[in-house]
Amino acid sequence: MKLMPWLAVLKPIGRPWDPPLIACVLLFFAGGQLVLMSASPERVDALWLHQILALMALLAAAQVPFRWWFRLALPLYLVGVLLLAAVLLFGDTAKGATRWLDLGLVRIQPSELMKLAAPLMLAWYFSLRRQSLAWWDHAVAFGLLAIPAALILKQPDLGTTILVVAAGGFVVFFAGLSWRLIVPFVLAVAIGVGALLAQGDRWCQPDVVWPMLHDYQKQRVCTLLDPERDPLGKGFHTIQAAIAIGSGGVWGKGWREGTQSQLSFVPERHTDFIFAVLAEEFGFFGAAALLAAYALLLLRGAWLAARSPTWAGMLVGGAVVGTTFIYAFVNVAMVSGMLPVVGVPLPFISYGGTALVTLATGLGLLLSTAARESPGSTLSGWRRVR
Amino acid sequence: MAKSMLEDGSEIVRTRRRLWWLVAAILAGFALLLGRMYQLQVGEHERFRTLADDNRQAFVPIPPHRGQIFDARGEPLARNVRSYTLEIDPAQVKDLEGTIERLSALVRIEEGDRKRFLRQMRDQRGLGSIAIRQHLTDEEVARFVAWKFAFPGVEVQARLFREYPQGEATAHVVGYLGRINEQDLERLETEGLSGAYRGTDYIGKEGVEAAYERLLHGAPGWELLEVNAAGRAVRRLDRREAVSGKDLVLTIDAGLQRFALDAFAGRRGAFVALDPRDGSVIAMVSSPSFDPRLFLDGLTQADWERLALSEDRPLFNRALRGTYPPGSTFKPFMAMLGLASGKRQPGQRFDRQGMFEYSGVRLYDKKSNCQSGVDLHRALTFSCNVYFYTLGNELGIDAISAFMGKLGFGQRTGIDLPNEAPGVLPSREWKRQRFKKASQQQWFGGETLSTSIGQGYNAYTPLKMAHALSILVNGGVIRKPHVLAATLDPVTGERIPVAAEVSGFVKLDPAHVDAALRAMVDGARIGTSARAFAGAAYSVGGKTGTAQVFSLQGRKYDPDATDEDLRDHSWYIAFAPAEQPRIVAAILVENGGPGGKTAAPLMRQIFDYYFSSREGTGEGGGQ
């Protein structure tokens, strides 16, 4: 790739890498700086740090040969599940949700680890069962996925649960889950959503308790169905974000000129709702450019995944791409009022070091899976053996 | 081979195919999002832009400072004082009861405070905070501020309060402010002034506060603020300062007001003093009075019952709105008519004045000075009834009501205070309109007799009596009484005096005027009020009046036996100094009995105070 020779400074020693992907990431970082300078200038310094850390994580993860990642799959998964259990037992509570584990020196969020550990674990399992893949292997995979998902949902953290399930689900999907199972599932989801839309008013009555979901999660869904239900309270975020986006128009109000954003009408404007700031200040073209950049990144990622020398690599790489897509899609859809407000950040743009590092590590993992082992490495050995 | 096929084939191929599905999903998903963006940002852009504009700008009115009110010597009558209030925004507080309960642990909140809070919450127009406690002490402010975090939606605010330093003494003249109510709001709207009152809670309800509301109020300014979703101002975009209301200087003498009210000592009555030279009102007192502060936030039930239902009617401005038969204080004006009409000459004497018989009814006057040799001077000095019966009978009601109408009887003086009562000047025409039955509509000659001594249907305000006397003193020049002396611009200090207004002229012969006034001077010297004014340090002329509350219908009137509320009203009208009057006054004491016994001594007290207090200022009175 002679496309961008100046990016060679980032080229890790001895490992292949992918300039278009890195370029996309740097583009997002630049965009993130720009938007954050408008949304929350006081946080720009911290963002630099986050982005440098994320870039290091990306390059470091890419450096790690995929076979090492492969061997780490089971331990990472087990540690992750244990930590999630520990969070529920000993975790710190903030805003009604217990997500953090204080290890004395650092506070970690084990659910973030699961976003990578879960797909790795499933890919590992499918590789193990590759020769004799049966229908129940998918069931086992779902079981392996259900354990961390349930633990995270219990925290409660619907956004992360969705992402972990999506990451694992993509692995199951790429591993060849029969369409005969996928189609009914998709139908069931569609019917559920349809029923919710039709029956929302009844189900959203205060005395109706929804199974599995917390009251605030129910409220979020209900608010989505009818934001005007509570314009001063829960529907407020949705309404104000929609006003911000809509008032941006075709060309936007200009950088730092977005009244909705600058006057704090947009909630969480530096994190989950940063897209509203971008859309208000840079308009339809800004939003379209961002979506195009995501498409570029993801298509490049899918291409890399497809070219992975190993099947497990394809599964993990595909899951990373798919998860990143889910991030972007869910975030933009929720900010623009198409999905309930779940805590999913805009990938590579939203302020928040943990998510940024996780996403970057995922891309590093993708690069790692896509790397062709140099001749003389033990690649063929483990691949054959497995 | 099969194994190799599997390796490079089926799973890999299937996974690659599925990656294509992912690519398709990505493209479809982003296409969907793009469509949504297009819908919001292009399709519905106009709607959202309007919503966004509404979101961020707020005009916040800056209420003007209300003008202050001073008396003629600069004593404050109404001023603004800064005071701390504890205010609750009901929209931000869920548990009002509990919050108030917890607050009461920090600051003293009495039952009255709670009631006022609830009342104002009920009457509130629009949103906003409502005071739960006013006039916090510094200590209470400090205590609350320390605990403020525990009371979201509760704030301490420094507010300007109207204060009436003279309290009851000037309550009726100065009036009071009250909260803007529905009627006020309607009126402001029809006058196109509702914008001028945005941000203002109070409006003048009574007295000068109401009469000069426009001058006092000023014009509000505004701030154009950018506000965030929480309603907090983020940035000021534009600002126009409010224009403070004008300060008012009144013609009122606060010291005299205080003294006069005290002199009444709770008796029902009124005192009005005018400066005949320019029509300015030196004092206007109605007793009993009330504390104007009570009206600021609406009367409590207890205060309302005490004030409005009291038989003494302290809220009633007797000087301006109480109408009473003037009794013998009407006689100087009758005398003027007698002279003007040529029916009487100043030195013309009459004998056998002890009794007047009219169609079989005998009216007696037993005063020793009124029996014989009664001329106009003596008739006024000693208040001889028969002289005026005879005169009235000769003149007839039409001549009387025509002349008295010229002097402004039965009409408003036009004073710059609201809701002046016009009083009643009886006439044939008046009686025709007053009564429905034909038998009652007819004017009877006997009624002319009682009219000519100030009884019967006659009913005038104390203000009018003082005013009428000042017309006499002025030789027929009618000056409109006024309480406003000047307006002061609080910023530039520019003082604009109010010009004295001559509202009319009655042709009076100076010799006739002189005769009537000299008789009144003798009335205070040797006549009906001689005892009251014995040894006065100034020269004074006056006329007593004793007005029947109702017709005794032939029963003999006994001042001691009659129930107090049936006892006669006591009048006195006076001017001083006699040579060049600077003060003309009328006093009325309801059910006070004979004017010479009650009203005249009261006038003496007040005049004494007035002239002695003026001594120091070089305006010392009298001889």
SSE blueprint:
The complex is a heterodimer of chains A (386) and B (623).
Chain A: H1 19-39, H2 44-63, H3 66-90, E1 92-94, E2 97-102, E3 107-108, H4 110-128, H5 135-153, H6 158-174, H7 179-203, H8 215-225, H9 235-248, H10 259-262, H11 274-306, H12 311-335, H13 353-370, H14 379-385
Antiparallel strand pairs in A: 1-2, 2-3
Helix pairs in contact in A: 1-2, 1-11, 2-13, 3-4, 3-5, 4-5, 4-6, 4-12, 4-13, 5-6, 6-12, 9-11, 11-12, 11-13, 12-13
Chain B: H1 2-8, H2 10-43, H3 45-56, E1 57-62, E2 69-70, E3 76-88, H4 96-103, H5 111-123, E4 130-133, H6 138-147, E5 154-163, H7 171-174, E6 177-179, H8 182-190, E7 202-204, H9 207-211, H10 213-217, E8 221-227, E9 233-240, E10 247-250, H11 254-264, E11 269-275, E12 280-287, H12 301-308, H13 318-321, H14 331-340, E13 355-358, E14 361-364, H15 376-381, H16 385-395, H17 397-406, H18 428-434, H19 438-441, H20 445-452, H21 462-473, E15 477-479, E16 484-488, E17 495-497, E18 502-505, H22 510-525, E19 541-547, E20 569-576, E21 583-589, H23 599-619
Parallel strand pairs in B: 2-10
Antiparallel strand pairs in B: 1-8, 2-3, 3-4, 3-5, 6-7, 8-9, 10-16, 11-12, 11-21, 13-14, 15-18, 16-17, 19-20, 20-21
Helix pairs in contact in B: 1-2, 11-23, 14-16, 14-22, 16-20
Overview of this protein structure:
- The complex is a heterodimer of chains A (386) and B (623).
- By secondary structure, chain A is an all-alpha fold.
- Chain A has 14 helices and three strands.
- In chain A, helix 3 (66-90) crosses helix 5 (135-153), helix 4 (110-128) packs antiparallel against helix 12 and helix 11 runs antiparallel to helix 12 (311-335).
- In chain A, 51% of the residues are buried.
- Chain B has two domains: 59-247, Penicillin-binding protein 2a (Domain 2) (Alpha-Beta Complex), CATH 3.90.1310.10; 254-619, Beta-lactamase.
- Chain B has 23 helices and 21 strands.
- In chain B, helix 11 (254-264) runs antiparallel to helix 23 (599-619), helix 14 runs antiparallel to helix 22 and helix 16 (385-395) crosses helix 20.
- Chain B starts with a helix and ends with a helix.
- The model of chain B is unreliable at 1-7, 551-555 and 618-623 (pLDDT under 50).
- Chains A and B meet through helix 6, helix 9, helix 10, helix 11 and helix 12 of A and helix 2 and helix 3 of B.
